[in-house]
Every structure is written in C-alpha cells, then in structure tokens.
Write a structure and sequence with these properties.
The protein has helices spanning about 5-10, 25-35, 55-65, 70-80, 85-90, 95-105, 125-135, 140-145, 190-195, 225-230, 260-290, 295-300, 315-320, 330-335, 345-350, 355-370, 375-380; strands spanning about 15-20, 50-55, 150-160, 165-170, 180-185, 205-210, 210-215, 235-240, 305-310. By secondary structure, the chain is α/β, with parallel strands linked by helices. The chain has one domain: 3-Layer(aba) Sandwich (Cytosolic phospholipase A2 catalytic domain), CATH 3.40.1090. Strands 1, 2, 3, 4, 5, 6, 7, 8 and 9 form a 9-stranded mixed beta sheet that branches. It is globular and about 65 Å long. One of its GO terms (biological process) is lipid catabolic process.
Length: about 375
C-alpha cells in the first residue's frame, strides 16, 4: 500500500448521506458544486463514506467512483443532471407509454403459472441504459483499495421480508449488521441495486436481486443514519430534499383526492424517518457527552456530529412554472390518474425530469450551500 493510501486511513471519516426524492435530487448537485469550489482542482473528496437512497443512491455511487478527485466527480455528475431529460429516465412518448401499459395488462391476463413482470406505471428501462453508460462500477473497488473510499451504501426495501436492506461495498473492517427491520449486506454494487433503491412504489417496477424483489429504499427505512454509523462515520453531512418551510395549500377546501394523498405519503416516506433519526442521534450525543469516557468506550458509544442541509424553499411553485415542459403523454397519464399540476404539485415534483426545472433546483442548492458556507466549511474541515 502506498504512503498516500496509508495516510488516508487516518483521515476523519465524514459520511455524505443523500436522501431520495426523484427529480428533486438535482438540488443535491447544486450543494455539491458549491462545496467543490472550496477545494483545489485536484483534491481528494472530503467524504470517505457515501450513503444513498432512491435518487440519492445514483448520486452517491457516481461520486464514490471519483473519491480521489472530488471536483471531477462533481463535474461529471453535474453534466449528467444538466443534460438529463424525462426520456432518459422513463419512456415518455405516447407510443412507448401505451406499449408499456399494454404489456403490463397483457401479462396479467395470462395463466396463473405465468410469472408476470413487476408492476409499474412507467417504464424505467431508459434509466437502466443510462446508468450502464455513465457509471463505471469497477472504479468503486479501485477507490477502496487505494484507501480513498471507506465504503458505499445503497439502501433498498425488500418486498418479501418488509425489511430495509443496505447493500454496501467497502473495506474489510466493515461488518454486516442485523436489526429487527434492517440488515446490511456486503456485495458488489451494480446497476440493479440502484434501480431497486430508486423504484418508487407503483410508479416504477420493482427490481429483482437474487430471489427477492426490491423497491424504493425509503419505504422501510426506519433509521436513515444507520448505514453511515455502521460504516464508521465520525461525522455525517445530510443533504435532504424536503423543505422545512411548508408549502401553500392554494386555498384547498375540498377533500383530498388520490394524487394528493399519494403526494403526502411520498413526503412522509422520504422525510419523517430522517427527522426522528436525527432527534435520536442528538439524544445519544448528549448521553455520550455526559458519560465518562472509559464507560463510553466500554459500551462502544461515540459522538457523531451531523450537519442537516435542506432546501430553503418548497418545490411546488417551481412545479407549477415548469409543468408545461413535461412530455404531453406523461401529462395525459397524470390527468387520467387525477393528478393536478397545482393541487398535486408535491407528487409531480418527483417526476419532472426536465432541464429548466432541474437547473433551477441546482441553482437553489448552490445558493443554499453558499449561504451556509462558513458552517459547512467548518464542519468539513480536517482540523
């Protein structure tokens, strides 16, 4: 092992936790662009651990492939998002959507012994092709062997066992874990793990890994911070995709429809568990801080600092502005399902993979990070 690799093992282990949120994940790119500007052009990443769920898993994996050069990794990921369109994520043409829905219906009309494909309103095969083209998964192991990367964790939900499963690839010192509703499984991260973690229920089909089917990692994830802590993080930077500022209800007085309820459920899935886990971490840090050092070490307890960054503004107003850029076939399907671009903007914000909306989110993330630059720089400092 080289001397540079040996020195990396003595670095403070800072984890980057990227939450899920579909198209909202573009916000994370803006934050990362701002952080990358504070580092030299050729400089290792401030993060040695990457944890991602759903769309955040895609961003985490891309960054993990370039841990030795943080700015390069952010630049490549930024290029991907700024050039992303809806057709790169799922089939959005009229013929493509009709073909997918027709194939789904025909498969379920066949005999019982015929195994029907996983159900999903949208066909995400374009996303599979995109990930295969832009990600070089062999780089992950290279970064681990070089000592630049401690580990990468991708969380998905097992539909058979109703457990949260974290697939991780990392250094040999990281041991698998088992809890009542969550397990950690060492493996080689592939496209299938990313598709599984980002398979929003009903919207995208589940992904098969081994003999089980997996869906969006946020569904059964009770403790989002657990993977980072189990992989040895000393600090955790969380880039959340749920604004703390409540959105306007536009004077809504009638009973909520299916789409409105779906939007609230998705917000709850992606946000509520993180808030509870952060409160738990804060209580544990207080407990460890008041405990004798020898006793804390005996109980294998340690303080872990967390920095929670989230959007300063809600996304609903942006959805209303850029909804017209969504492909007409997708808008038609949403109308059939009773989804309104105004009253149901929450659920639409997850699926609006259009350049103008994405670039606006990137700019928002960049500005929010710049507004907290001094705090972020202090948190990420090697001091």
């Amino acid at each position: 092992m080289s001397s540079s690799a040996r020195s990396n093992f003595h670095r403070k282990n800072i984890a980057l936790l990227l939450t899920g949120g579909g198209a909202r994940a573009a916000y994370q790119i803006g934050v990362l662009k701002a952080i990358a500007e504070w580092y030299p052009r050729v400089h290792h990443s401030p993060f040695t651990i990457y944890c991602g769920t759903s769309a955040g898993a895609l961003n985490a994996t891309s960054l993990a492939c370039h841990t030795s050069c943080f700015r390069l990794g952010v630049k490549k990921l930024s290029w991907l998002w700024t050039n992303l369109t809806t057709k790169d994520v799922f089939s959005s043409s009229l013929s493509g959507m009709f073909h997918h829905i027709g194939r789904q219906g025909f498969a379920r009309m066949q005999a019982q012994y015929h195994c029907a494909p996983p159900f999903g309103l949208l066909d995400n095969r374009p996303l599979r092709a995109l990930l295969n083209n832009v990600l070089n998964f062999s780089k992950i192991e290279h970064q681990i062997l070089a000592g630049n990367l401690r580990g990468l964790a991708i969380t998905a939900s097992n539909y058979q066992t109703s457990k949260s499963v974290t697939f991780y690839q990392g250094q040999s010192c990281i041991e698998p874990w088992t809890r009542s509703r969550a397990i950690g499984v060492p493996c080689q991260i592939t496209t299938e793990h990313l598709l599984a973690s980002s398979a929003i229920p009903i919207v995208f089909p589940a992904s098969q890994i081994g003999h089980s089917y997996y869906g969006d990692g946020s569904v059964h994830q009770i403790a989002p911070l657990r993977p980072a802590l189990k992989m040895g993080a000393d600090q955790v930077l969380i880039i959340d995709l749920n604004p703390k500022q409540p959105s306007k209800n536009h004077g809504l007085v009638h009973a909520p429809g299916l789409a409105t309820l779906g939007g609230h459920l998705m917000d709850a899935i992606f946000a509520d568990t993180l808030s509870a886990d952060l409160e738990h971490l804060d209580r544990m840090n207080t407990l460890v801080g008041n405990m004798a050092k020898a006793k804390a070490e005996k109980l294998a307890l340690r303080q872990v600092d967390a920095f929670h960054l989230y959007p300063s503004k809600p996304f609903e107003s942006l959805v209303e502005r850029y909804y017209c850029h969504m492909p007409i076939a997708v808008r038609g399907l949403m109308r059939i399902l009773g989804i309104s671009p105004i009253e149901d903007a929450a659920i639409t914000s997850y699926l609006l993979f259009e350049p103008k909306y994405i670039n606006h989110l990137i700019d928002m993330g960049y500005q929010d990070a710049q507004n907290r630059r001094s705090d972020l720089a202090a948190f990420l400092s090697d001091e």
